[in-house]
Amino acid sequence: MIIARVIGSVVSTSKAEKLQGKKMLVVQPLDMETITPEGKPLVSIDTVGSGFGEIVMVVGGSSARQTEITKNTPVDSAIVGVIDQIEIEGKLTLNQNKGG
């Protein structure tokens, strides 16, 4: 599992039948301590209703096919959560709690 920021979307009118109706987003992997870009962007299927600019949890490989939305679907990356806060060794590296 990695963390990433949603930086864009992908529109594809011609695709595998099981991908019809799936929201495809471009995510930029991030370093968990510095919240800076790390590696190349990738396309992930959104399973939680995330949006542009949000920091999300992304799973890959067979784990990406374990959600109700992606079960038996040809995907290799899926967004499975929107992150509110990251704490590493007692230090908050990310705090997006709303209202607090």
Automatic annotation (TrEMBL):
Pfam families: EutN_CcmL (PF03319). This is EutN/CcmL family microcompartment protein. InterPro entries: EutN_CcmL (IPR004992). It comes from Evansella tamaricis.
